[in-house]
UniProtKB/TrEMBL annotation:
Single GO molecular function: hydrolase activity
Entry-linked Pfam families: IU_nuc_hydro (PF01156)
Full protein name: Nucleoside hydrolase
Top-level taxonomy: Bacteria, Bacillati, Actinomycetota, Actinomycetes, Micrococcales
Stretches assigned to the Inosine/uridine-preferring nucleoside hydrolase domain: 15-318
Gene3D superfamilies, per database record: Ribonucleoside hydrolase-like
Listed InterPro entries: Inosine/uridine_hydrolase_dom, IUNH, Ribo_hydro-like
Length: 328
């Protein structure tokens, strides 16, 4: 027998992406599509950065640019489990992709809803599929209403949402749009059993995943649909963020979550505990109920599942991995 034919084929990481496809979501999708050891088996859409219909168009547009239009798209929730939808047009533009006049693709949606698809795949392929949740958690909340043990059936679940542990005294209290846009769904996701498989990648760490002016210049200099689309989206994202930091830089919130799903070794520190939820004037603070130094909070430990929250990551490695994928 030829020795070259005896090596076992490397098994790819099978991933589902749940997304409200705005600017940084599109970058995160492009990152995973570029990985030779990842197979994106389906993408579910949800409201948030844009309306759910625009989210699906944006997914189809990203898939076309990446040369992978065959990946199935599942239409998801257009509003939260309770209340009205909040749309982040002031960040991501009316179309979700920065209103840059991009020619968007009409999606061919599957018959199953996003929630139905999540339930089916997790039960048909237990411990084989990873889930990356990048938007409001409504699709996952709907799925958990059908199957409260659903989170235990994925191989891993990475949620871009929440804010890690409580901040140190004097530091700003952080909130994120994804949990604020559907508190009911967030409470289901962060309190139901997850068998240690759920990781919170909150704004406490994603705020540090900065793509600077050099990153945009690097993308602009390269031909091809992926780097050119990535550059256009990053430039649009910088339009919003320059009012925050006084520079044309932005935080790759969803990009960091995608890298952590694929390469969990970039994580350098975590804290684990139950999550509490407090409505603040600017949104919902969803945090692991621990102080910044890992001590119990004085208000008491809430009930619910244990959630692992990322508190540190290797920035240099993240940046290298992420930009390399967008430069393909």
């Amino acid at each position: 027998m030829n020795a070259q034919n005896t090596a076992p084929e490397t098994k790819k990481q099978r991933v589902i992406i749940d997304t409200d496809t705005g600017l940084d979501d599109a970058h995160a999708i492009l990152y995973l599509l570029a990985q030779q050891d990842v197979e994106v088996i389906g993408i579910t859409t949800v409201f948030g950065n844009c309306y759910v219909e625009d989210s699906a168009k944006n997914v189809a547009t990203v898939l076309k640019a990446a040369g992978q239009p065959h990946i199935p798209i599942y239409g998801g929730a257009g509003e939260p489990l309770q209340g009205e939808a909040s749309i982040g047009w002031y960040v991501h533009g009316r179309d979700g992709l920065g209103d840059r006049g991009l020619e968007r693709v009409e999606p061919q949606l599957q018959e199953e809803s996003g929630a139905e698809y999540l339930v089916r795949i997790a039960n048909e392929h237990p411990d084989e599929v990873d889930l990356l949740a990048l938007g409001p958690l409504t699709n996952l909340g709907l799925a958990l209403q059908q199957d409260p043990q659903l989170l235990t059936k994925f191989r891993s679940v990475v949620v871009m949402g929440g804010a890690g542990p409580y901040p140190a005294p004097g530091e700003a209290v952080l909130v994120d749009a994804n949990t604020a846009n559907d508190r009911t769904a967030a409470e289901l996701v962060f309190t139901l059993p997850n068998a240690g498989k759920l990781t919170m990648v909150g704004v406490n760490v994603t705020n540090r995943a900065i793509l600077d002016e050099d990153a945009l210049a690097q993308l602009r200099a390269l031909p091809g649909p992926v780097p050119q689309l990535s550059a256009e989206l990053l430039d649009a994202y910088n339009d919003f963020y320059q009012s925050k930091w006084g520079r044309r830089v932005s935080a790759a919130h969803d990009g960091l979550a995608a890298v952590i799903l694929h390469r969990p070794d970039v994580v350098t520190a975590t804290m684990t505990g139950p999550v509490d939820f407090h409505r603040l004037s600017e949104g919902l603070a969803t945090r692991v109920a621990l102080t910044a130094d890992g001590q119990p909070v004085t208000s008491g430990t809430p009930e619910g599942a244990q959630i692992r929250a990322v508190t540190g990551f290797n920035f240099a490695e993240f940046r290298q991995l992420f930009l390399a994928a967008l430069c393909v």
